[in-house]
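Below is a complete specimen:
___
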Amino acid sequence: MSMSSSPLLDRPISQQAPEVRSRFMTRVYIQLMVGIAGFIALSYALFETGLAYDIAAFVLDTSWLIILGGFMIVSWMANSWGYRAETPGAQYGAYALLVVANVLLFATPLVMAEFYDAQNTPAGTTSTISIAAQISLFAFAALSFIAIKTGKDFSFLRGILMWGGILALVAIVASVIFGTGLGTWFSVAMIGFAGAAILYDTQKIYTSYPPNREVAAAMSLFASLALLFWYVLRFMTRR
C-alpha cells in the first residue's frame, strides 16, 4: 500500500506537533538500531562461515578503486531509492541494500583488525573491533545529543563536508595510484569529518525530513556512523 501524501506529511518534522517530532525521532533511532543489529548479525555470519576471509582475500587482490567505486555507487543508489520510495517495503529494501553493502565492505578491515589483535593484543583483553565499536557508538550518541538538544545551526557544515569529501576522495585515489599510505593523521581527519557529518545529518533530518521518511533518515545516520567506525577502526589498527 502506498503512503498517502498530504500537505501535513510533506512538512518537515521540525514543523510538526511535539508528539509527532518525538515519535518520529524515536522511530528513526529504532530503525538505526535495526540496521546496526543487521550489520552485526551478517558480519558474524561471514566470519562463522569463513566468507569474510574469502572476501578479504579478493579485495586485497583487487584494485581498491574498483571496490570503493562500486560501494559508492551502491550506497548512492540505496540512499536515493530509500528517500524516494513510497512504500514501506521499498524503503526497507533500500535499507537492506545499504546494510549488506557495508557488511561486504567492512569484511576486509574487520579481518585485518582480527589479525592485528592476534599479533599485538594480549589474550583475554577486549578486541580492537569491540573498542572501536564502543568508541564510535559513544561518540555518535554524544554528537546526536548535541545536534538535537542544543538547537545550534550546523548548516554551515554542508560546504565543509562537500569539499572535505572531495579532498578525501582525491587523497584516497592518489594513494592507490601512487602506492603511498594515507597515514594516521588522515584517519584522525576523517574521524573529525565523520563527526561533522553526524552533526549535520542529524540536524538535517530534524529540519528537512517529513514524518513518513524515518527509514531514509535512519539510513543517513547509519552511513555516517559506519564512516566513523571505519576510521576509528583504521586509526586503532595503525597504532
Notes: Residues 7-236 form one domain. The two ends are 52 Å apart (CA to CA). The CA atoms of residues 20 and 215 lie 15 Å apart.
